[in-house]
TrEMBL record:
PROSITE patterns: SAM_PEAMT
Protein's GO biological process: methylation; phosphatidylcholine biosynthetic process
Taxonomic source organism: Cucumis sativus
Pathway: Lipid metabolism; Phospholipid metabolism; phosphatidylcholine biosynthesis; phosphocholine from phosphoethanolamine: step 1/1
Enzyme class label: transferase
Enzyme Commission numbers on file: 2.1.1.103
Protein known as: phosphoethanolamine N-methyltransferase
A single MF term (Gene Ontology): N-methyltransferase activity
Superkingdom, natural source: Eukaryota
Annotated coiled-coil segments of the chain: 405-432
CDD domains: AdoMet_MTases
Keywords: Coiled coil, Methyltransferase, Transferase
Amino acid sequence: MESMMVDSDSHELDSEETAEVISLLPPYEGKTVVELGAGIGRFTSELAQRAAQVIAVDFVEDVIRKNESINGHHKNVKFQCADVTFSELDIHEDSVDFIFSNLLLMYLSDEEVKLLAERMIKWLKVGGYIFFRESCFQHYENSDKKNDVSYHREPRFYSKVFKELCFVKDDSENVFELSLLGCKPTGVFGNKKSQNQICWIWQKVRSDNDRGFQLFLDTVQYKSSGILKYERVFGHGFISPGGLETTKEFVAKLDLKPRQRVLDVGCGIGGADFYMAENFSVEVVGIDLSVNMISLALERAIGLACSVEFEVADCTKKTYPDHTFDVIYSRDTILHIQDKPSLFRSFYKWLKPGGKLFITDYCRNAGTSSPEFAEYIKQRGYDLHDVKAYGQMIEDAGFGEVVSEDRTNQFIQVLQQELEAVEEQKDRFILDFSEEGYNDIVCGWKAKLNRSLSGEQRWGLFFAKKIN
Ligand SMILES: C[S@@+](CC[C@H](N)C(=O)[O-])C[C@H]1O[C@@H](n2cnc3c(N)ncnc32)[C@H](O)[C@@H]1O
């Protein structure tokens, strides 16, 4: 640990790179800034020039004193020698506008990162920001420092910790959380660095989320390991029937034009969004309630040149200004939504005149369900309708030219292909996941096939327009 502060300064941060990091920071003019792991102060002087006050913290005495000797002439800087992982830090709750750290968390254990994240949100005022930049993915080779312990984690670790653990309540029982404003690689200027230095920007906001359903998604149906298992079946980037193949077929119906704005509701890990943005130069916003899904999507967006944005958001609570999107696209997500009419009315408002709505979703036959199917629907918490009634809800929300197609035959074909592919790679699948995981998939797919072949379970495709 001793070498960590010196080390964070010895990463070659040329002035171009420092300028890039500074350019990414949220506004901090006239604000109270805490700089964690300040080192000898490469950023301290930059921050001091615009902030009202900077508290520069480092746990190596010599290092923080050196920082003081370099930056002590900035009278708005307080230098504190303290370990950020212990509670000895003299920072009050709700007192800080902006917390900055650069290459610090990578030197902390998972537990320490979690504890620090929980404390950071407490220090922040509502509306305040956190910025941190970490080295991810590849190990930083430094043969001189054999005893260095550093964790070059996958970015999803940080996204998940700060999204999932950072909740605080005030005295009036209001809940606050961190909203992820951005997650992107730095060091791309001049094209000379690999894209493993990732920065995050968060803002402390009031939470209107009771988190019950989100926790269900993240801990039951869409655990990280479960997502990767499903992805193996559906294809890279996808958690819905047919993966890229059906995506290509359906996106072709949208007649996308460069710079059009597309909202993907329940975007999962973003496969369709990357496909649309890369191939049609559209600007895609993907929202999903599952932190696990968005963490993976963000990770995969790193380094891509196309325009994709991801956000953890509940589509039933999210709002957008009227006439924001040219297309709203949603694949096999709305089955989770109980109040579909109200969601469709929101979609109608968010679309521009002439905008298009495209949905595929699980449906059911019109009669009563068998006890097994009823149990499956109940256990998953789904809300399923017959294709005709589903299309009618879309029409009732104001949409015109509504096309409702029963695509169950295509669904059956896709299920058969997916099942065969999994069975063919049984050994590899078990090696990568587990025997239990393999059996779950095979049983689940066989059950879906039986329900679909009996006509009970259906797959619906819906296309509609907001007529001018
Ligand atoms: C079957 S997955 C489909 C993912 C993606 N559309 C795809 O095709 O790969 C359904 C997704 O809906 C998301 N979801 C469920 N309820 C949601 C809500 N209220 N708001 C946003 N997303 C939601 C889930 O987290 C999950 O990622």
